């Protein structure tokens, strides 16, 4: 388990629907939905980190685009940022998550998101509307 100072999450949109993934860890977040992603390794760019994480966790090939929304503070002084990501290839595979789903704006707003990701709900919902 990495203890990265910076965590990057991906907003993958396909046919007007956003990819959400259900976490299994830690206990406080298990069962709640997130934009998938993970920690930026030493010497790695956030763009490369997000592409790597989405490949490792879900088997997706993406092209990482611009940042969306605000930076979000996480416990331990870490910062979480989100970027749009274009799906190039792949169907999500459950390697670390317990489920995935593609949601429209209504599904996003009603999803039990991890707390940090709620910072982006309005901007994401606007894009999906
Ligand atoms: N995290 C989050 N929202 C995301 C992705 C990650 O709040 N969309 C948090 C959960 C963990 C930390 O970032 O505290 C590291 O994530 P991971 O365990 O997926 O590497």
TrEMBL record:
<keyword id="KW-0515">Mutator protein</keyword>
<dbReference type="InterPro" id="IPR020476">
    <property type="entry name" value="Nudix_hydrolase"/>
</dbReference>
<dbReference type="InterPro" id="IPR000086">
    <property type="entry name" value="NUDIX_hydrolase_dom"/>
</dbReference>
<dbReference type="InterPro" id="IPR020084">
    <property type="entry name" value="NUDIX_hydrolase_CS"/>
</dbReference>
<feature type="domain" description="Nudix hydrolase">
    <location>
        <begin position="3"/>
        <end position="126"/>
    </location>
</feature>
<protein>
    <recommendedName>
        <fullName>8-oxo-dGTP diphosphatase</fullName>
        <ecNumber>3.6.1.55</ecNumber>
    </recommendedName>
</protein>
<dbReference type="Pfam" id="PF00293">
    <property type="entry name" value="NUDIX"/>
</dbReference>
<keyword id="KW-0460">Magnesium</keyword>
<keyword id="KW-0479">Metal-binding</keyword>
<keyword id="KW-0378">Hydrolase</keyword>
<keyword id="KW-0227">DNA damage</keyword>
<dbReference type="InterPro" id="IPR047127">
    <property type="entry name" value="MutT-like"/>
</dbReference>
<comment type="similarity">
    <text>Belongs to the Nudix hydrolase family.</text>
</comment>
<keyword id="KW-0234">DNA repair</keyword>
<dbReference type="InterPro" id="IPR015797">
    <property type="entry name" value="NUDIX_hydrolase-like_dom_sf"/>
</dbReference>
<keyword id="KW-0235">DNA replication</keyword>
